Amino acid sequence: MTFLLLAQIIFWAALALLLYAYVGYPVLIFALSRLYAFPVNKADITPRVSLLIAAHNEENDIKAKLENALALDYPAHSLEIVVASDCSTDRTNELVRRCAEQHPDRVIRLYEQTQHLGKTIAQNAAVSLTTGEILIFSDATTMYRTDVPRKIVRAFADPTVGCVAGQLVYVDRKSTVVGDGCKSYWGYEKFIKQAESEVCSLIGVSGCLYAVRRSCHQKLANDMIDDFVIATEIRLQGLRTVYEPEAISEEDTNKKGQDEFRMRVRVIMQTFSALQRYPQVMRVSEQGIYAFQMLSHKVMRYLVPAFLLVLWLVNPLLVSVHPFYRWAFYAQLAAYGVAAFGWLFDKLGIRLGPLSLPYYFVLANLAIVKAFFKFMRGESRVVWQSVREQKLPQTESA
Q1: What pTM does this model have?
Q2: Other beta carbons less than 10 A from residue 149's beta carbon
Q3: Which sign does the torsion angle of CA 379, 383, 385, 386 carry?
């Protein structure tokens, strides 16, 4: 085998894996969802619901969040509100207590964590204060449309369902480069979520809007994030996590690339920890289609930086072999060039429109690389800091 032939084999293998991660798997899972849909039996039910709001130093947003919660269209006697305050040192706790005093006819409770130990620990501890049959988990920086509780509990009429994930809609009020890229990427992810839910079960949820049967709730390890691990815990109990696109929440996108980058690094590091702790979810012999989803959606996606590096290193060796390789190399140069302009325009606050995607793509994959090395060094981050700069959107009617 000649050197150039080997280089071509490596090039095409890397390109095929890259295309599978971003195109092949979404097309395949969508096709499976059309052929082998596993329907959810929904019904209009009104079980007792506990809305659990995680907060850390959210004095700028907690009042609006509580008003949003009190305005939800759900029987007041069946909805309680519990705020899990992770050692807030500002006026967050005071504002929660004041709201409870102003609404004596409503159940509003405050759990005060005395040490800043992180969202997961605060949520787990606060669950002990709840009495709901269904637990809805939220963030202080997320606004719900008024019909969210009614929409999200419908799927619990199906006994095979243990968790329901709502739809998170990102709002980019300043039309930033990062916001444009985030919204486009998230729309793509929601397409995959819908198909995965119909075929088998979601492998992750949006931590700002998901609901769990109280009987299924499991305390997560301190270094785990609920977004990813809750779906695994539900799967290991023999139940499904399904997607409910009609239960809609809204949240502002990050405005700056550095904030989005930090957030993605933190989430990816904790996902690596979760995959290490739950290796069984990647065994097709044990978990079947769920393991296939995990490998294709998560593991393959986290290998993309390696595929990109291989393409970048091997492509120049092949430019003289065939015009295709020359144009492929030019395409790489152009994509990374646009990404560089995206970084510059992000700094200058100038919009790129559709051209923001290469920048966001590179940012997301660099976050994977940094998260991987931090994870390999044994670093861990289990606490969170808010990076939101603006007030959140007001509640909309569905």
Answers
A1: 0.88
A2: 24
A3: positive
